[in-house]
Amino acid sequence: MKKTASTFIAIIILFSCNNKNKTLEEATNVQSAIEEINDNMEIIGNGYLMKAKINGKSWQSTSMAPAQSSGRIVGYFDGQYIGLPYNDQYLVVGKKITISENQAADVFFKDNCSYPIANGEMKITKVGDTFAEGTFYFTAVCTTTKKTLNVTDGFFRIQISKK
Question: Could you tell me the residue ranges of all domains in the chain?
Answer without folding.
Answer: 1-40, 44-159
